[in-house]
Amino acid sequence: MKQPPSSASPLSIAIDGPSASGKSSLSRAVARSLGWVHADTGSLYRAVAYALDQGNMSHAKESELCDYLLKREIRYAVLEGSTHVLLDGEDVTDRLRREETGREASRVSQIPCVRERLYKVQREIGCRGKVVMDGRDIGTVILPEATLKIFLVADPRVRAERRYLELLQKGVKTNPEEVLADITQRDENDRTRSLAPLIQAPDALVLDNSEMTIEESVQWILRKLPH
Questions:
Q1: Where would a tag sit more exposed on the chain, N or C end, judged by fewer CB atoms within 10 A?
Q2: What is the pLDDT of residue 8?
């Protein structure tokens, strides 16, 4: 059985969950409430997808893809309490939110060399302490020693509605059923992949935010954080 983090362990909160469960928005709000840093790990995988698209390497053989990524620098930079992603020194954070980039990120996240490359980047920011990190394997792989682990869930249709409204605000033309189908497929991919599948850490607390506001979810997490 895993032992609880010692008092000497850096303070951190790991928030895992499926696509469109609200991980990033909630993590950002929790970090803001605590005065901590928010680290969106999904943006790193999106940056890999973006880099591969830039180099016309999205459909390259795995060995060629891995060699190509060795030539690109991907790292975090902390700006105003949140992590931005730098690709070869350029802040590309705002370019990573396209749905196509998200789908490609889900695919490349299953490639061993990609996860190995980004593991070190995530650990470096996580081990600094006072960080809220969200993703799909934070509590199980990246920060197994996290002070508090949350497994965030929500009804698929609720998640689809949230994503649909988000896309409408961005001017992306789609429909609710198409978004639901995409989320359902991403869930299946995340659960069944052989490398770092989406699973709940044994010591994680489940938070179903289907009928909760972000503020209610923030307060729920803050009450669970050891003092």
A1: C
A2: 57
12-219 is classed CATH 3.40.50.300: yes
The answer for residues whose C-beta is within 8 angstroms of residue 55's C-beta and 6 or more apart is 68, 72
- The pair of structure tokens assigned to 106 is 């889900």
Residue whose C-alpha is closest to residue 140's, from 96, 76, 84, 204: 204
Higher pLDDT, 166 or 3: 166
Residues 125 and 77: their CA atoms lie apart, in Å, by: 9
